[in-house]
Amino acid sequence: MSVRVPGPMVLIPLFGFFFFVFPEGASPKLQLYSLSGDLHRSSEIYQGLENHQKVVYSFWSFSCLPCMAEFPHLLQLQKEKKSVKFYFVNVLDEREKISEFAEKNSIDKTSILLDERLAGARSFRVLNKNQQPILPQLFVLNNIGNIIFKLSGYTEANITRLKTILTIN
After folding, report:
1. Per-domain residue ranges for the chain?
2. Whole-prediction pTM value?
3. Sorting pLDDT into bands at 50, 70 and 90, what band is 18?
4. What is the structure's pLDDT at 115?
5. Which CATH architecture has domain 3-167?
6. Are 42 and 106 in contact (CB under 8 A)?
7. CA separation for the pair 148, 136 (Å, rounded)
8. CA spacing 20 to 30 A to 78: which of 89, 96, 112, 156?
9. What is the DSSP string of 96-107?
């Protein structure tokens, strides 16, 4: 059973969770620079994935207290789930501040993406009607680039849901 939601997504209930799936060809495209200076193209990431591998995009900002509360949990999951690719999409913060944060927390600079012009936030529909980001937002994509799960806001329950989703093959 599936339920249509606004836009080109389908909402699918499964195991007590709702999965957002973009129809083929409608998955979000992301082209942002990482903190290390490399160009990150989501289409290239999916080409190298095996079946059942997942990608997590977490949209965050320093000014978002729930984002900062969520971050340590995501870093722990990144260490535990080696087969999952984690990308932390920073929205509108200064590069120097992000770099200091990455060094202090031993975060690989290639996993932090800079969304200075909100292109990624637009692509993933993370903006409100006034074009302001609604944070934190977290997306889990499958190996072909379709969104299979979305979390809005930070709660312990959301982290538990995320762990479950990352465990399901």
Report:
1. 3-167
2. 0.84
3. low
4. 97
5. 3-Layer(aba) Sandwich (3.40)
6. no
7. 17
8. 96
9. HHHHHHHHHTT-
